[in-house]
């Protein structure tokens, strides 16, 4: 597998959930590197996928096809002739049905990829499968060896985390059984510009703080990463012959109040949320983490300030935020 996909060897790869926030950027990154890409969608003709066909290189090297992760035959058709598969498709919800659907869908993807002779699968998991463990010491470094506590996630109704954990375990077991190379990327709260038109969970999160519609800031820390870094992480994990296992994709960890302060500093003309929730506890402290495995693959992380700035510009351009002229220009 070449990391320099040259003119004479444009590999065909497939991306599930190609039209989503992360999936769209994975498709874009692959096209920029010269790959031929097949993207799956439930309805390829839906106008919400039009942005993919407008990407540079899409006319020559991108095709969209209909596939459903619960329909193995449709996946086999999508993966036919592909060297590799990027399994990005995943709903973000707390639906109790999400766990069995995520597990069965992942099992189908891994086996369909193996059936069609793919060599490698890059699976999009989540930081939710790593950090939800109340017994972890505050001084411990969060890295790829960490797993969330399944019972704690279930008890606290974090079913999305349960689904991601079980899907990741399933991916590893099935890939091992079928002799497939597997790399897993675990992104956290993802910011940055959208390629798709519709708002997604994390960009809506930024918009709500910026417009003050989220009334208060929780006394909590969160991990953030730029969506373009997540896409590069996927492609690096695919291209590096020795890449295996988990890759924690975190750019920075900070208190929500610091995130909001950054937004207020960049865009003082907006009514940014200012009230902190009074929970009687000391200010939550950012935890230590390691993104060294991805750095070792060659990934350089985008500063959060730059990512947030470009998120807001994108939200303005796509009509999700009113354009309020600043008194003076905000500088990065």
List the helices and strands and how they pair.
Blueprint: E1 12-16, H1 21-32, E2 36-41, H2 50-53, H3 58-61, E3 62-66, H4 72-79, E4 84-87, H5 98-115, E5 120-124, E6 141-142, H6 150-155, H7 159-178, E7 181-187, E8 189-191, H8 201-210, E9 216-217, E10 221-226, H9 227-239, E11 245-249, E12 252-255, H10 256-266, E13 275-276, E14 288-289, H11 292-296, H12 304-317
Helix pairs in contact: 1-9, 4-5, 5-7
Organism: Zea mays
Protein name: Cinnamoyl-CoA reductase 1
GO biological process, one term: lignin biosynthetic process
Characterization of the model:
The protein is of the alpha/beta class. It has a single domain (12-210, 222-254, 286-303), classed as Rossmann fold, CATH 3.40.50.720. It has helices spanning 21-32, 50-53, 58-61, 72-79, 98-115, 150-155, 159-178, 201-210, 227-239, 256-266, 292-296, 304-317, and strands spanning 12-16, 36-41, 62-66, 84-87, 120-124, 141-142, 181-187, 189-191, 216-217, 221-226, 245-249, 252-255, 275-276, 288-289. The strands form 4 sheets. Strands 3-2-1-4-5-7-11 form a 7-stranded parallel beta sheet, sandwiched between helices. A 3-stranded mixed beta sheet has the order 8-10-12. Helix 1 links the parallel strand 1 and strand 2. The longest helix has 20 residues, at 159-178. It is globular, with a radius of gyration of 20 Å. The two termini are 38 Å apart.
